Amino acid sequence: MSLFNALDISASALTAERLRIELVAENLANVYTTRTPAGGPYRRKVAAFGARDGGFAALMARFTRRAEPPRGVQVTGIYEDPRPFKRVYAPDHPDAGPDGYLLLPNVDVVEEMVNLIAAQRAYEANVTAFNTTRSLIQSALSIGG
User: What is the pTM of this model?
Assistant: First the structure.
């Protein structure tokens, strides 16, 4: 694996973790949204990650029967959390049902904060890996020159 591949892997992970942080922010911003354009309360969103193929190089390796490992991370999809909504008795709320219960989003603030911290640390780790690889490349170039 070349050093430039290492940069590419770190960059793909940075992009994926940034999206994860954006989804956490969206979930936290909608923690009390009881009415969406689709109808009903906001449903928590979650990103799913998977291995990214190596693009054209991986395709050529597959045809030439050379083993080429996946390179990097990609977002395979953004999914809505299927967990049930929270039910709260609030008969005065305009979105409450005839029984007086209000459906709140299935967003747990504590869980979102834990996800935010995990995504932030993963982002920082990938920044460190990216900067270390960049330093190695610069050192290699200074040796040759």
Answer: 0.83
Residue 89: inside a domain: no
Q: What is the DSSP letter of 1?
A: -
Q: CA-CA distance, 16 to 19, in Å (whole number)? A: 5
In order, the DSSP letters of 31-94 are TT----TTSSS---EEEEEEEPP-THHHHHHHHTT------SEEEEEEEE--SPPEEEE-TTST
Number of domains, the chain: 1
Domain span holding position 18 = 3-31+45-80+107-144
- Whether 33 shows a pLDDT value over 80: the answer reads yes
Dihedral in degrees, nearest 10, Cα atoms 77, 80, 83, 85: 170
